[in-house]
Amino acid sequence: MQITFLGTSSGVPTRSRNVSSVALRLPQRAQMWLFDCGEGTQHQIIRSDLKISQLSRIFITHMHGDHIFGLMGLLASCGLAGNVERIDIYGPPGLNDYLQSASRYSHTHFSYPLKVHSIRPGVIYEDDEFTVTCGLLHHRITAFGYRVAEKDRAGRFDVEKAQALQIPAGRIYGQLKRGETVTLSDGRVIRGADLCGPTEIGRKIAYCTDTVYCDGAVELATDADVLIHEATFAHQDADMAFQRLHSTTTMAAQTALAGGAHRLIMTHFSPRYTPGNPLEFKDLLDEARAIFPNTDMAYDFMNYEVPRRREKQLSVNSYQ
Predict the structure, then answer these.
(1) Which residue blocks in 48-170 are alpha helix, DSSP H?
(2) Within 10 A of 85 (CB to CB), how many other CB atoms are there?
(3) Residue ranges for the binding site?
(4) 43: number of CA atoms within 13 Å, CB side?
(5) What angle do CA 81, 85, 89 make, to 5 degrees?
(6) Catalytic entry in 66, 225, 237, 296
(7) What are phi and psi of 170, to 5 degrees?
(8) Which residue in 279, 285, 314 sits closest to 299, CA to CA?
């Protein structure tokens, strides 16, 4: 599971930061999932090492332009390229009407199956490997945060030990790999757990933007390996954050702390903190780390490989 930040600015793009979009690459199934799709997202994908042909799911948090203005262009390009099998889009009420209107007035017809799912809090997608849930955030319009939870799986199967026990290969190996208990033809009872290493804990990612500090974000962040959270404003601009229902760096850090997240990556920064201003991005990072030390600051095209719990956390550049 690899996260790629395609846009990390709030409201409007800057020279170095595009507006909101985050890609989640799932190499085991050759798929890419996209979270939000601000204007210019398809250009950001082209500039990255991501493959548009692998795009299969898009999750939209809310209907503000800096999170959806790139959606129609991306979908149209996928149709013209002809290399996308199917795309499922999840988002708040009104998203389907928006796409239908844009398609009708631009005379755009998709050459691949496209389904829009109007979501409500709870589980919105599940398969054998992943569960995706959404929860309400607190913004000026209806906004959702997302949580992607990889399911736990049995540890590595010890083939040499199985051979030493003279367990016949084939279907029985598959049962034991899944942790099942099997009775052999000679009457021996073999527990799959005895032949497998420690259970691999599924990774969890939470994505929360746009929102002021709220219980919904804390719930989504619970025990997350990575919490991606907006940090539009510095702490000294908290009054502005409350007025606009956005988060400060300290709100993002408090959400990570309250939820017991393992790492916080902040995004969605106001252009007011670009280099040369009284407060810069490094100051925002210091504010968050004072509350939640394991914090990083996203920048466009930053990649982050989500490690398993038993693996050492990988380091990334703090800010750019």
Answers:
(1) 65-68, 71-81, 95-106, 159-164
(2) 11
(3) 62, 64, 66-67, 139, 210, 268
(4) 12
(5) 100
(6) 66
(7) 110, -135
(8) 285
Q: Are 203 and 224 in contact (CB under 8 A)?
A: no
The string of pLDDT tens digits covering residues 138-189 is 999 999 999 999 998 878 888 999 999 999 888 999 889 878 899 998 999 9
66 is a catalytic site residue: yes
**How would you classify residue 291: left for phi > 0, otherwise alpha for psi between -120 and 50, otherwise beta?**
alpha
**Which residue ranges make up the annotated binding site for Zn(2+)?**
62, 64, 66-67, 139, 210, 268
CA separation for the pair 192, 133 (Å, rounded): 31
Phi, psi of 186 (to 5 degrees): -90, 5
Average pLDDT for the chain: 93
Bond from prior residue into 49 cis (ω within 30 degrees of 0): no
pTM exceeding the 0.70 threshold for the entire prediction? yes
One-letter amino acid for residue 301 of the chain: F
Q: Mind listing the pLDDT tens digit for each residue in 205-262?
A: 999 999 999 999 999 999 999 999 999 999 999 999 999 999 999 999 999 999 999 9
Cα 20 versus chain centre, distance: 12
- For β-strands 204-208 and 144-150, DSSP reports them as antiparallel
- pLDDT of 317 reads 44
SS3 content of the chain, % helix, strand, coil (to 5): 30, 25, 45
Query: What letter represents residue 129's amino acid?
Result: E
Closest CA to 144 of 24, 72, 55, 60: 60
Sign of the alpha-carbon torsion through 19, 20, 25, 31: negative
In 3D, which of 148, 122, 117, 124 has the Cα closest to residue 136? 122
